[in-house]
Amino acid sequence: MKIKPITIKLVLMNFLEFAVWGAYLTSLGRYLGNIGLGSQIKWFFAMQGIVSIFMPTLMGIVADRKIEAQKVLSLCHGIAGAAMIGAGFYCMNAGGGVAFAPLFILYSISVAFFMPTIAIANSVAYNALGKEGMDPVVAFPPIRVFGTVGFICSMLLTNFLKIGGVAMQDSYTQLFSSGILSLVLCGYALSMPACPVNKSSGKQSFADAFGLKAFSLFKDGQFAIFFIFSMLLGASLQVTNGYANTFLGSFASDPALADTFAVKNSNALIAISQASETLCILLIPFCMKKFGIKKVMLIAMFAWVFRFGFFGLGNPAMPGVLLFVLSCIVYGVAFDFFNISGSLYVEQNTTTDIRSSAQGVFMLMTNGLGATIGTLAAGAVVDACDVFNTPANWASAWYIFAGYAFVVGVLFMILFKDPQKQKAAA
């Protein structure tokens, strides 16, 4: 079958989109620990959630009502890239005296403009596929796979590349890598097909004028449940991003484990999670048709139980390291089966005039409220377990996270009704 040119363009866009994130997301905690900011890790990852409470929705409104989505995507990446490069320059010039406030401010500006691009990139892709007469449910997942490939490539580069004799995962150079990739996408986004802008000239309500109509979806009982559980599951998203690398690095205090692959190349081990994503994304069209949206989401929720549980049970030596590998494998199911399927659920159940805004609301609930609450709660659990002074207590923290995911899954199974069955009954 002949591949359409738009497919190749969208593949590259998704590759760059997630390469920007992969350059630092799983390794930033390790760098912060190295420079004495380990206790502040939770705030760096919570900030991704805090800005996602309002920025994806705000930028979605702009894309729906004011400026074409591909141009908004370009603008956001331009600002995000410049701020991240600024953070890199600050760390480079500060040497061993990196202060929390200047780094945190520059980082916060960058993530404030990066986080909306995930939802906007989806809208740009759906629009482009629609113009070509392609079904997003079938055509988008294979394209989205290359976003994960981009994330993996960035992770491996950060793990193995040494600059000045220091691995990027232990250095501020990861910030430069992310910023440069963001600037590349800033230019490339402008080559995407134009997206429609709904500039109505008639009399409008306040909600219509400011693109807030998407929040009316909460009036629908099942949509409200979907968004609430998006928030609850979103609480799990940043836990391993913020602490998995730090957790694996903690085994370096044990001489018998310090030279194991999992400790010395923790970012490469974690990359198995993203490799699993590439396979799981391809399973989504089949699983959605075979099982329906509710069962696919349930599979994702219970996969988080195994994701956290395997971390608690494993260790870097054989055979314990195999449990870490299993944790990384199930991550693909845990992440993709909800995030991608949830995005498609929003796409299929909203009208074109609020589609970007609705994607922004979905991002708000998962990567905004959910990730913020989850990251701060995870930080509280980690502090309560005193893992930095007693590394053996990491297992208790992972079991607590696993128990939370299990409860969320059971409640979702009881409360959320399968939309396919509802339509069939109607």
What's the quick description here?
The chain is mostly helical and 426 residues long.
What would you say this structure looks like, in words?
By secondary structure, the chain is an all-alpha fold. It is 74% helix and 1% strand. The longest helix is centred in the first third of the chain and has 32 residues, at 100-131. It is globular. The mean pLDDT is 87.
Morphology call: globular
The pLDDT mean sits at 87
Given as residue ranges, the uncertain stretches (5+ residues, pLDDT < 50) are none
Q: What is the CA–CA distance across the termini?
A: 38 Å
Strand order of the largest sheet: 1-2
Tell me the CATH topology: Growth Hormone, Chain: A
What is the C-alpha radius of gyration, as a whole number of Å? 21 Å
Count of individual domains: 1
CATH architecture: Up-down Bundle
Largest sheet: 2 strands, antiparallel
Which class best fits the helix and strand makeup?
Answer: mainly alpha
Strand fraction: under 5%
Q: How many E-type strands?
A: 2
Q: What keywords describe this structure?
A:
mainly alpha, 426 residues, Growth Hormone, Chain: A, two-stranded antiparallel ribbon, 1% strand
Please outline the helices and strands.
Elements lengths: L4 H18 L5 H7 L6 H12 L2 H11 L3 H26 L5 H32 L4 H25 L1 E2 L2 E2 L5 H16 L17 H4 L11 H14 L4 H12 L10 H4 L1 H26 L1 H21 L7 H28 L6 H31 L8 H22 L3 H7 L1
Antiparallel strand pairs: 1-2
